[in-house]
Amino acid sequence: MPWADMGIPTHPDWAGVTVREVLDHTSGMPVARSSWFDGGIDCGAFLPSLLDRPPTETRGRWTYSNGNYCALGLLVGHHTWLPLDQAAQSILFDPIGASGVHLTTDGQLPTDVGYRLGVERLARLGGAGTFIVSTDDVAAMLAGVTAADLEVLRFPGLLIDQYGWGHTGSIDSAVACAWILEGGRTVVAATVAGRTPSTGGGVCDRVVPAVAGDLGISQGRPDRSPP
After folding, report:
1. How far is Cα 198 from Cα 175, in angstroms, rounded to an integer?
2. pTM, whole model, 2 decimals?
3. What is the mean pLDDT of the chain?
């Protein structure tokens, strides 16, 4: 990771951390779970507070931290010379015809589902979660994933089970599941604004087997333990 070139001060021990480790959540990034939702300063201003000490003892093992994808969002900006939303729109969303994607830092649009805690609390997440995207656009994005893409984003950077692969998301009062079944032929994207289920994994546990049953490929409850 080119921390210095990106203008991000770090402890010297971060010098050897690779982009692959950050993609895979194996970099030893501190979790700092509750601190991501304090609003105020953005990802670039907050991230150095996590990097002023050596990577944690979890380096080399999957440990989910928003800091990893905050850093990746900054890396995209560094290489494209564009703000993250403009870079993502040009590289990712324009090719699939997604025009309603926007950032939480721009506030909510009338067409957005309300988030009772206020989207301003998500400002620090950057590439880890400041985008507001419809389920249709998430499904279109996943439907466009190629075999070459999966050489870059792979386990443990994404989750797998007996039905396929995908990702889940959980913040207070909003949870989501995005899953690929049948080798890419079927895409599921579901979001719940509320507390039931309480996690994105819980959404997948309900939606994925239901769709699999309709497809005639039911294999019981999803098992997303490491292979």
Report:
1. 7
2. 0.91
3. 92
